[in-house]
Specification:
By secondary structure, the protein is mostly beta strands. The protein is built from 11 helices and 55 strands. The chain has 9 domains: 169 residues, no CATH class; 70 residues, Beta Barrel (OB fold (Dihydrolipoamide Acetyltransferase, E2P)); 76 residues, Copper binding periplasmic protein CusF (OB fold (Dihydrolipoamide Acetyltransferase, E2P), Beta Barrel); 73 residues, Beta Barrel (OB fold (Dihydrolipoamide Acetyltransferase, E2P)); 71 residues, OB fold (Dihydrolipoamide Acetyltransferase, E2P) (Beta Barrel), CATH 2.40.50.320; 81 residues, OB fold (Dihydrolipoamide Acetyltransferase, E2P); 131 residues, OB fold (Dihydrolipoamide Acetyltransferase, E2P); 68 residues, Beta Barrel (OB fold (Dihydrolipoamide Acetyltransferase, E2P)); and more. The longest helix is centred in the N-terminal third of the chain and has 21 residues. Keywords: Signal.
Length: 918
């Protein structure tokens, strides 16, 4: 491309030299839209009569009108759908490049290689001279008798011209060989691909909804204005009436700007000044422009006709605190931040506003006012240039909940019950703390989540009275010493602290690795424990020093009834263990006493002929925790023959590593989750199965698929006891829970089918088509008020106001939608979350997505909240979470109370509204 370009430019220079020598008639200005040879910028408030304020290109038309790049016809018409000619495009491009005055210097008569209107001749000659257009390309592309200048410009031709205008021809060369994203790329001219790709990559041009670019299509006046407006940011040269810089001062009449040359310049603004936001092309109010924002201006003299907010970031350093004293004679303020006061110097022209940007007088800022002092980092001086009044001094007594305590900063925040809003105050030496009975206390006794009464005097926190302390969770490592007879007090020894005792909660959860549904009876003196405490009461016990070893399908080779010593032979070899009065003994599902063990399991002798059956047992150290005759064996299929006329061999590998082989007849029943009828052909190596052997334990009577996972409940049917759930991959499954004995509800006295709620999570083990066991997760949901990543805790304010500390551990994963986005450190205060466990028992924290939406209404038939369509094609209809929190402040409201045009915060998890906040 570059070689061809250089050759063409040399040709252009030769042609121009010839035309200047020959001469040409003088050109005259026309009265068309681009006809004026030196158009002055009209005020940007000019409205063309045929371009409405809602027109998709209004911003770009307004901008180019202010710049004087485009003009209107009679009757103030712009005619946005009219097509543009090639000569009009060249004129507009050169004006956008700020070359109008350069063009007009060339008054010599010119003979051009193409035919154009008289007014356009100097523009076209200049464009040939600068290589914006090339004779070799334009003459070849134009029929002999056609008028080149009045030919309608095509979209690909405009893309080429604009890319050359902004000096990005090298980019077009680099992208020439890249495949096109448009479905009509075969319609491109041979030379056009690189230019179109470059224009698309710079977001100057776009395609159509049908996926095409329409390279041979015409370009409308609205489109041309948009192309040049978008290309403006890439222009090497610009019109002189464009100014960029940072706002140093802004009123409704005056703008002080630090320009690109680091000069301070003043301009006037008025009601005629139009303001747009560059990020989304939206019209905004002048009040949206803040101190030190980066802006783009179109000016006429010293008046701003068009303004664009190009970067919302404020170049300000902020100091927040309570004003202690104002020294007007010295232009200084003393600011209380935590427990110390700091002096700040004020600029002579310091501005004072409220939080909404409304101007205030400096004398109105009195001691006790909560303020933000802002220093402009663009300037070399360190004086405060802006004071924002956040809150005037208040005196009140209120009730609320403690949201956070930052002792290092000397601050405490409350959520006031009456308003539901957070408030932040500094802790000082004069702040007193009392318990509910009036006894003196101190700050260290306060907890996040405490319900308190607090007294404020001139913004100073005077008194805090604890009305009800919050639940407080912590973890303790200790060694078990003893458990009292009624299992209500646990005595432990803690390293370096001696003995300690804790009350045990009624529904304490006991965990011992390898032992399902462990209880307090399974604890032993000397066990190393991890205790989970809630308000100093034990709610969870995990044994960390030992685990339960499981032996599957073992043979009894000896038993001494006097010493209760049992010898077995298993895949792991011969072992000897002791039965105790606490050993759980079952035969064919029925519980039997220790005294019956020999009769039932051994018979009259210990010979192999008298052995009744294989056994499964769980052992802790040398003691048998439980033993029962083998009812079934769980394992992974490692071998399966499938012969039509003979018995098949099935080999499974147990979790303990045993390889067991059974005979399977072709007619043996097979149950597979998700299938109504299944055969041996539905099984394959690698499947996890449960095998039910015959009494003789050589043949198999049934094979069932075995699956354990976490499911989100979608539907329940109390009559059929059927649950429909969704697994981690999004697959929907159905299963039946035969009875309540298969349900486990941690921490609850009862466990019934009715406790399985829609949108809740359960951990289920499914054997075949039936559930073997279900654990209700009781996920926790609410607003995060604090995170301690090092300790692995999240402080959560649940829906309804209760605050608790959740110990999720340092290995918790954080998800949003289907993606894992980080670890606990990525969770922030005010996030809305759902905390649950995955298949491995690790905590998962699901972050809700949040957006601000406008209500359309509530569909009471479909039970859906409906929102008005936004600018990004967002979803408009949402189902509500079963326990969705709908509220205004701390007041819970009904779904039907949300009315059309209300602004709301919408929190969504798994495509359902989790929280809706007025």
């Amino acid at each position: 491309m570059s070689k061809k370009h250089n050759q063409a430019r040399r040709l252009a220079a030769a042609v121009l030299a010839l035309t200047l020598a020959v001469g040409s008639p003088a050109y005259a200005a026309e009265t068309s839209a681009e006809g004026s040879s030196a158009a002055a910028a009209d005020t940007a408030s000019q409205r063309f009569s045929d371009v409405s304020a809602e027109h998709w290109a209004i911003k770009h038309i307004t901008k180019l009108s202010a710049l004087g790049i485009i003009e209107g016809y009679e009757r103030r018409e712009y005619r946005p759908e009219n097509s543009v000619t090639q000569q009009e495009v060249v004129v507009m491009a050169l004006r956008m490049m700020g070359l109008e005055s350069e063009v007009q210097k060339n008054k010599a008569e010119t003979v051009l290689p193409v035919a154009v209107s008289d007014y356009a001749k100097p523009y076209i000659a200049y464009a040939f001279d600068k290589g914006l257009i090339l004779p070799s390309e334009e003459v070849e592309a134009t029929p002999a008798k056609a008028t080149w200048g009045t030919k309608e410009a095509t979209r690909e031709w405009v893309a080429k011209l604009v890319i050359r205008a902004i000096g990005k021809e090298q980019l077009a060369e680099d992208l020439e060989g890249e495949s096109s994203s448009f479905n009509d790329a075969e319609d491109n001219s041979e030379w056009a691909g690189g230019y179109i790709n470059a224009a698309v990559s710079l977001k100057i041009v776009q395609g159509f909804e049908d996926g095409g670019f329409k390279p041979q299509g015409k370009v409308t006046r609205a489109q041309m204005a948009t192309f040049l407006s978008r290309a403006d940011k890439e222009m090497v040269s610009r019109p002189k009436n464009i100014v960029t810089g940072y706002v140093l001062e802004l009123t409704d009449r005056k703008l002080k700007l630090l320009n690109a040359n680091e000069e301070t310049v003043e301009y006037t603004v008025s009601s005629d000044t139009v303001v747009y936001n560059a990020k989304d092309d939206s019209r905004i109010a002048l009040s949206n422009i803040k101190l030190t924002n980066e802006v783009y201006l179109v000016v006429k003299g010293n008046a701003v006709s068009y303004m664009e907010l190009t970067n919302e970031e404020q170049k300000l350093e902020t100091f927040e605190g309570t004003l202690s004293k104002l020294y007007l004679d010295q232009m200084m303020v003393s600011l209380q931040q935590g427990n110390q006061d700091t002096l700040y110097k004020l600029a002579e022209n310091v501005a004072v506003t409220d939080s909404e940007g409304r101007g205030l007088s400096l004398s109105s800022v009195v001691p006790g006012t909560i303020v933000e002092l802002k220093r402009n980092t663009l300037l070399k001086e360190e004086n405060i240039s802006l004071i924002v009044v956040k809150q005037l001094p208040i005196s009140k007594t209120a009730e609320g909940t403690i949201l956070s305590i930052e002792a290092d900063k000397g601050t405490i925040s409350f959520q006031e019950n009456a308003s539901g809003l957070p408030e932040n105050y500094g802790i000082s030496l004069q702040t007193s703390v009392k318990t509910a009975d009036g006894a003196a206390s101190d700050i260290t006794k306060l907890r996040v989540g405490d319900n308190v009464t607090y007294e404020i005097k001139d913004n100073a926190l005077m008194n805090i009275t604890i009305r009800k302390q919050a639940d407080y969770g912590q973890s303790v490592q200790a060694t078990m010493t003893s458990l009292n007879e009624d299992k209500t007090i646990l005595t432990v020894s803690k390293s370096g602290e001696g003995l300690g005792a804790y009350y045990i909660a009624d529904n304490v959860a006991v965990t011992i690795d390898g032992l399902q549904n462990a209880s307090l009876y399974d604890l032993e003196s000397g066990d190393e424990l991890k205790l989970e405490l809630l308000n100093d009461k034990v709610v969870g016990i995990t044994v960390t020093s030992r685990s339960i070893k499981q032996y599957i399908y073992a043979s009894i080779i000896g038993y001494d009834a006097d010493t209760k010593a049992l010898m077995i032979n298993s895949e792991a070899g011969v072992g000897a263990f002791k039965l105790t009065e606490n050993t759980s003994i079952r035969y064919q599902g029925s519980k039997i006493d220790l005294s019956q063990f020999q009769t039932v399991f051994i018979g009259s002798s210990t010979s192999s002929n008298s052995r009744k059956s294989r056994v499964d047992l769980k052992v802790s150290k040398d003691k048998v925790v439980s033993i029962e005759n083998t009812q079934y064996v769980d394992g992974t299929i490692t071998q399966l023959t499938n012969n039509s006329n003979i018995a098949n061999d099935l080999t499974i590998r147990t979790a303990g590593g045993q390889n067991l082989t059974f005979k399977v007849n072709n007619g043996t029943p097979v149950e597979v989750e998700g299938k109504t009828t299944a055969t041996l052909g539905d099984l394959k190596v690698g499947d996890l199965v449960r095998v039910t052997p015959t009494f003789a334990q050589d043949y198999v009577t049934k094979i069932s698929s075995l699956k354990s996972g976490v499911y989100k409940v979608l539907l329940t049917n109390a009559t059929s006891r059927e649950v429909q759930g969704k697994d981690a991959s999004g697959k929907t499954v159905k299963f039946t829970i035969e009875n309540d004995d298969k349900i486990y509800n941690p921490g609850q006295a009862s466990h019934t089918f009715s406790q399985i709620g829609i949108d809740e999570y359960i951990t289920a083990t499914i054997v075949g088509t039936k559930v073997d066991s279900v654990t209700i997760q009781n996920a926790q949901r609410g607003k995060v008020t604090g995170v301690d990543a090092a300790a692995g805790t999240v402080t959560l304010q649940a829906f309804g106001g209760a605050v608790q500390v959740v110990n999720v551990g340092t290995g918790a994963s954080v998800k949003q939608g289907a993606a894992v986005i980080g670890t606990l450190g990525s969770v922030k205060p005010n996030d809305r979350v759902e905390i649950r466990k995955d298949e491995s028992g690790k905590y998962v924290i699901e972050l809700a997505s949040v957006s601000k939406r406008t209500v359309s209404g509530y569909d009471s038939v479909l039970k859906q909240m409906v929102f008005k369509a936004g600018t990004n094609n967002e979803k408009t209809n949402y189902n509500l979470f079963t326990k969705a929190y709908l509220h205004k402040g701390s007041e819970t409201v009904a779904a039907g109370s949300f009315k059309a045009d209300e602004e709301v915060n919408v929190y969504v998890i798994d495509d359902k509204i989790f929280e809706l906040e007025k």
